[in-house]
Amino acid sequence: MAATVAPGGRPSRIRSIPARVRCAKACIVSAPGMTSQRCCAKTSATRGSPRRSAIRKAPPSSSPKWTSRSSATQTGSRPVAAASGAAVWAVRSHGAILATGPTGSGKSTTLYASVGVVSTPEKTIMTIEDPVEYRLPRIKQIQVHERAGVTFVTGLRSIVRADPDIIMVGEMRDRESAKIAIEAALTGHLMLSSLHTNSAPAAAARLIDMGVEPYLVASSLECVIGQRLVRRLCMECRRATNLPAADVGLDGSDQVAVFEPGDGCMRCSETGYRGRMGIYEVMTVSERIRTLIVARATAGEISRVAVEEGMRTLRTAGLAKVRSGQTSLAEVTRVTD
Ligand SMILES: [Zn+2]
Q: What is the pLDDT of residues 208-223, one digit of tens each?
């Protein structure tokens, strides 16, 4: 407890709170005053909007990666590593950018970081989310509230009528919301959304399965990000080891020096890992890929062309992190196989 003097001159006592808290589920909570309890309590409804307790407030000045163009593009901001791929496309004025991956792979964080990259005072940005996970300055965010008649579909229709420059849809869950979102991307809006698929090349097939016409998918998609979260090795207790070059994505038959988790220490709570980071594959949709989408090609065929055109797959991105000693081969295998 520290004694301070409030602006009015009246002494008050405030609790000193660490500026950066990491909760039990390793969510990064940067807002002063946030606790792990509030961060992860996503299901308890409170007075006012449902799931209000899930809101993680982004403080206006002290933080964060997604509040301004300058801070969002700093190197080393982990979510922004993925967003940078999207940002290349975000300078375009229309089209769809999707973040894909399983639950808990950091898709929402990537979307928020991307919105932070493109957010400028001249641009109108509207979102529809369930739940609103971060509050962002200058952005109109709508919380889905089915009992009050605000669903992804009705909310999205209202947003399209309001004609903002950029639309973020938390997740494309069904045919109707996917169709409206894709049509919005085709009618002059930049549309950011997430989709539940295992890889970036699988996104087009998933949208077609959901009932969106292939030609609409082909002409609206601009960039798809596939992502996973891997645990970082604890730098205090990681242990050097040798692996065959082929196992870590290199040519030749030599052994390569990498790291594996050690026995654990105080700093990593005896787990051998401390913190997490993202690995990403960023697929830009070229003319060749558009042709494949119209022809209803499989994810495998699209992936092959994307790799030929320079896409680095999740596995390749993960192995690069293994070679640089940031994570272990077992960890990359766990999330990419
Ligand atoms: Zn350790």
A: 999 999 999 999 999 9
